[in-house]
Design brief:
Strand content: 25-35%
Largest sheet: 9 strands, antiparallel
Shape: globular
Distance between the termini: 59 Å
Number of domains: 1
Helix content: under 10%
Bound molecules: MU-OXO-diiron, calcium ion
Radius of gyration: 24 Å
Length: about 725
Amino acid sequence: MTVLNNKQLLAHEVVEDSNPSDNIDFQTIISRRLNRRSILKGGTGLTAAAFFGALPLVGCSDDDDDNTVNNSAGNNAAIPAQGDLKRPEALKFTAVAHSTAETMSVAEGYKAEMILPLGTPLISGIDEWKDNREQSAESFEWRMGDNHDGMWFFGKKGGAYDAKASDNGLLVMNHEYVNSNELSPFGYYVTQDDTAAPIFQNRRLASDVRREVNCHGVAVVEMSRRADGTGYEMVADSKYNRRITSSTTAQLAGPVAGSDLVKTKFDPTGLQTRGINNNCGAGLSPWGTYLTTEENFLGVFARGQDASQLSAGYNYGRERYGAMENFPGWEYLWHTPEAKDAKIPDEFSRWDMTAVGASAADDYRNGFNTFGYITEIDPFDSKSVPQKRTALGRFAHENCAYAPVEQGKPVVFYMGDDARGEYIYKFVSKATWSNSDIGGGLKAGDKYMNEGTLYVATFNENGRGEWKALIHGQNGLDASNRDLPFNGQDEVLIFARAAADALGATKMDRPEWVSVSPMTGEVYVTLTNNKYRGERDDQPVSASNPRSYEAGGKARGNDNGHIIRWAEAGGDHAATTFEWDIYLFAAPSGLSAENLSQLNASNDLSSPDGLYFDPRGVLWIQTDDGAYTDTTNCMLLAALPGKVSDGALTTTSAGQQTPVGMLASDDNIKRFFVGPEGCEVTGITMTPDFKTLFINIQHPGNTWGAIAGGKTPRSATVMITREDGDVILAESFI
Ligand code: FEO
Ligand code: CA
Ligand code: CA
Ligand code: CA
């Protein structure tokens, strides 16, 4: 046995980028820079050298980004506030300074406490966390998982969802991936056999894989307000406390259920699969269930040499999602433990998509196709089966945000596909909204999420955009399609990326979180960064992705990211056209050519990722950065955006003209929190009384997280309250 690496591993910072399509919209073609040759090909996965290198791998992360800058939007007092509390007219707290400390810092007058770190038992009878391998893999079915990410606080009253209840609630959160250093502090163990088939040359231990599988997924934790009236504590042994992991049975719901392309040895009928994986950003449904996402699921699958012949179209579909032949996955290698160590025969082989049997019912060739969905969970029913809502498409889902619902109108969800050059989507339900469905659980989900139309966005150069429907039999999405013949709506959804290619969707700079303003109804999406922008011929700068920092005569791409926003035509979220601008360019304040929103030291940022409009209309922006981290750790900012077209045209250093929103000021965007060194700040939710803000800290460096016991840094939740117990960002606060 060899200890290959004693550093942090299995982070998910590898950004999968498998969009090889030559899909470039017309405006992009005319603005294309013909003098620039593509250097990088759109490969996926890791080279062997990178695989075993000392650098941590990160999933959806920061990896291409560099500087930071945050831009702001306008503080527009003319826009009416909604909800019980008004949006502040200006941000009056004192900005948190840049920090590279090992500890976190929060705005003066606030308190930030770490809770629920990795390994925290959710039930009694399980040992507290220890810095060793003694805790059984199985015990993690009842512990907090790793890399806490998107989350939601569900107010609870009388045992049911109550959107206004704050004394008691269910905190539901994603556990995105695993840092094996925390779970296996003595190393990442593999047995090497160079004579084995390529995907089996490095084998892992069954117990390590089992522990990692259990550290992924979702946690449901009942929280009660503390006796002193501020903040919350976990209700140990609550009947609601639950873990859903990468081995929990889940239902395939919607048009993909029963498709030939999701039939497996586990369920030859194609109605069920096991597990949810790489759950990144989160969403809430209008009826009060939790929507979790599946992002970098590619990394846990392997693909060897198929024994059975698969169709050319099916192969294209696999590769469009990054699964090339002889691909061992990322470092997870969950398919590799010895079969004799499996507790059930296919415990590990299920992660291998190689077609080895006579038919799909004999192997897991289709297992890969059962991941990559928005998954609905009812936290109020601990026996309920997670539902993969396939009508919303299969891709590297970042999060899922619904538009304000209106009686008698369809329900609309917005979503991003986080990979370089991937797309932005929306789903419009067939059923129309009825307020009587609030609290309706998964039955309401069946009604609104199993039937409807999935659209993909095109952003034109003139500030307008269009939604194109992914419907089988329309717009060339049929068996005549060149790269991937579509034989039904199930195939359009399973290979949504390829369908979107065919419709000429706009390749974006890694769409991360989406959030809809409760004040304007406008939709905001973080585009975190993209090192290929302007650097690869198929991703030239364009108005909607207009920056490519140039150094030494070479395009370096969009290092710092931006936030795009749009207004649907007529304010109708089911509309098929919209108007957009760029709300904010992130950039270091010292980088004047890139700092197009005029950020300063109080509000500059890089690589925006998490994004959340609280119900008052305050926009919270989180960063997952690797470009500005010499100056500052990742952070959380508060902002008061205006609306589309409240700014002016600007020209980027790449020579691209584009509309940018109102410039930043200390009134309209400000740094509220800085995380510990090495971390990503992600996941955000607020209690209905606006008095507690929960955020998550992923993969902190050094010692942060150890204060809860042990020595290893651990991912955890941070609970932020005001020292005087009042409402966060209340107007009176100075
Ligand atoms: Fe898991 Fe794209 O963030
Ligand atoms: Ca990210
Ligand atoms: Ca992350
Ligand atoms: Ca993210």
